[in-house]
Amino acid sequence: MLNVMPRRIIIIGAHAAGVDAAAAARKTDRTAEITLISKERRVGYSRCGIPFVIGGHIPRFDDLIVYPPTFYKMMKLNLKTETTVTHINKDAKTVETIDKNGKTETLPYDSLILATGASPFVPPIKGKEKQGVFVVRSLEDGEMIDAAIKAGAKNAVVIGAGLIGLEMGVAFVERGLKATVVELLPQTLPAMLDADMANIVQAKLEEKGLRIIVGKGVSEVLGDEKVTGVVVGDEQIPADILVVATGIRINSQLAQDAGIALGYYKGILTNMRMETNVKDIYAAGDCAETVSIITHRPVLYQLGTIAVRHGKVAGTNAAGGYSVFPGALGSCTSRMFDLESGATGLTEAMASKNGITPLVGTVTSKTRADYYPGALPIKIKLVFDKESEMLIGGQIVGGEDVTQRINALSFAIQKQMTLRELVKADTAYTPPLCETWEPMVFAAETALRKVR
């Protein structure tokens, strides 16, 4: 009887994409030797939860660890922490590593998954190296910011008004600090919402005490060794804490050095099976480029939801199974103070950039029957392709029930639902939960009126 060697799978990175890849690989091949390698000491945690620990909604940073040590034992995964992969030899099919003690090792693989993620980008601002300047990516980053608050910080400035930037600004206000968010672009949430919807978010957050400055950048960080403030335009704003939330840059150097192709956005280029241009090497998560379900063009949506789906596909295929990733819509959502916001697909601006003539329907409604106590306002904006009348995007800002409506719009886009089909959609009603006319249907009707 032939002795078949177990398949050796190495995964570089052990967060959303890496751990989900390992789990999928284990389910596909019960005998495979699966090794996860991470530079970090703590792995398998939710980066998205960090602002909510700082804001006091979640008690401890360790609560964000989704996969405890018992998980790796149960799944028979070999986890190497505080270990860096220094080189990939695609011809010999090996990776070289060095651990925190300087010990080097050469590990052979049959399949390799790159889940190397991304690193925070800090723009070249004068004084950015001062004490009190933070990024938000790891548990350690969160712990350092929390320690600075506990040490008596009174003023915080956040650079960048994307989701993480705004969530951090809100967290600082919730902890009793005077907080300012500064955004170079003319609106908040520029990658998620059109200006008309973003303006609602900005107004609501400002009502709650968060100062937001758009259309201006931070030109200098003030202070000797430690931050005391920032310069924005002609104004000096006091700051004991400065958080830079200006986006992330892909960790693709390892792949590049190994001769693995990069894509349009310099992310690792993959096909629908999350395979790179090198046989038996896959990529998943924030480091991997994907395509838009709508335009079929390259996109780089660096979201946890996409990372886990990438990981599942890559892990299944690396272990000898078959799975495909059809592309993404970039669906995302957040709750800040008591305001929920979400988006899926293309914004009106993105549609125009992609050569699509947008047809827009907008409605302001209530989350429950108007006469029912506690009904909250909700605004829905739907974007259709004027030519085909297909739904291509949705944005919602409101007091409650935003996420599941965004999910419903995502399903509708994926099933190529048209304006006329959405207008005739069969929806549910009860006074404590919704209006007789679903606001999404109402928004579609306003778009249909423009066609007529």
Can you give a write-up of this model?
This protein starts with 7 loop residues before the first strand and ends with a helix. Strands 3-2-1-7-18 form a five-stranded parallel beta sheet. A five-stranded parallel beta sheet has the order 9-16-10-11-12, with helices on one face. The protein is α/β, with parallel strands linked by helices. The protein is built from twelve helices and 25 strands. 26% of the residues lie in helices and 27% in strands. It is globular and about 70 Å long. It has three domains: 8-119 and 249-318, FAD/NAD(P)-binding domain, CATH 3.50.50.60; 122-246, FAD/NAD(P)-binding domain (3-Layer(bba) Sandwich); 339-451, Enolase-like, domain 1, CATH 3.30.390.30. The longest helix is centred in the C-terminal third of the chain and has 15 residues, at 304-318.
In summary, what is this structure?
The chain is α/β, with parallel strands linked by helices and 452 residues long. It contains twelve helices and 25 strands. 26% of the residues lie in helices and 27% in strands.
Compile the SSE list and pairings.
Elements: E1 8-12, H1 16-28, E2 33-37, H2 50-54, H3 69-74, E3 77-80, E4 83-89, E5 94-99, E6 104-108, E7 111-114, E8 118-120, E9 133-134, H4 139-150, E10 155-159, H5 163-174, E11 178-183, H6 195-207, E12 211-214, E13 218-222, E14 229-232, E15 235-238, E16 241-244, E17 248-250, H7 253-257, E18 281-283, E19 290-291, E20 298-299, H8 304-318, E21 332-336, E22 339-345, H9 348-353, E23 358-366, E24 377-385, E25 391-398, H10 402-414, H11 419-423, H12 439-451
Parallel strand pairs: 1-2, 1-7, 2-3, 7-18, 9-16, 10-11, 10-16, 11-12
Antiparallel strand pairs: 4-5, 5-6, 8-17, 13-14, 14-15, 19-20, 21-22, 22-25, 23-24, 24-25
Helix pairs in contact: 1-8
